[in-house]
Amino acid sequence: MRRWRITGLAAAVLAGLTLTACESTQDKAREVRAQNQQVLASQKGISVAKPYKDVKVLGTSLLRDQYGDAIVVEVRNESKQTLVNLPILVDVRDAQGKSVYRNDLPGLDPALTHIPLLRPGETFDWVNDQLSPSGTPKSAKVKVGPPERTAPQQLPEIEVGPPKIEDNPSGVLAHGQVTNKSQIDQLKLVLYAVARSGGEVVAAGRGQFKNLKAGGNPGDYNVFFIGDPSGAEVTVVAPPSVLQ
User: From the CB of residue 230, how many other CB atoms can be counted at a distance below 10 Å?
Assistant: First the structure.
């Protein structure tokens, strides 16, 4: 995790799975099964019967500006295990308590329905910046389900550089570099950016990095915020998308 204090505005970037060239046949089969399960889950929509006991939801924040709506869910892994691919069900409600958005719709990208990875004791800000509410969001109920995959013994290391801020016709743009220090290519890598001021979430965003090659060569990311991160402390994280 890295934190930066900025005086202008700032932002963040998405996640997925793929195969590596030197995997065994069994490893490839496991990855294919996991990918197929994700595709099937996205086609039928996620379901969380009851919250997973080892993940605590610490808080939720709703954001809205002229560019759209977003939700930030702060969670903590209270177990001693690394948890991978946890479904997260979000029910956004209006002032009267009526549901105006749920992310259990069929066909959503897995990054909008799952927390990619939580290390033991880790606190993580999950961001969905593609809400499409039918009314004005005022509150949200969140349930996190059990992990759908087992973590390998060693995780890939992704290093995120500080964002540089500039104005853009579509909003304030944050860009920087991200480096894959592992030997595993990272496809559909998601960087999550959250800005806090006075302890409150004031802005958040994501952006997808299509393919971050292994070997330590940096790639450029670009992200737009929902909300105003001016003068806030910005956290940018990039959980690995391909684990082995």
Answer: 17
DSSP string, 166-223: EEETTEEEEEEEEEE-SSS-EEEEEEEEEEEETTEEEEEEEEEEEEE-SSS--EEEEE
pLDDT digits (tens, 9 = 90+) for 106-123: 999 999 999 999 999 999
**Does the CA dihedral 175-163-158-113 come out positive or negative?**
negative
- Could you say which DSSP state residue 112 is in? G
Distance CA 136, CA 94 (A): 6
Backbone angles phi, psi at 176, to 5 degrees: -170, -160
pTM: 0.82
Give the chain's domains with CATH numbers.
2-23+152-237 (2.60.40), 47-150 (2.60.40.3230)
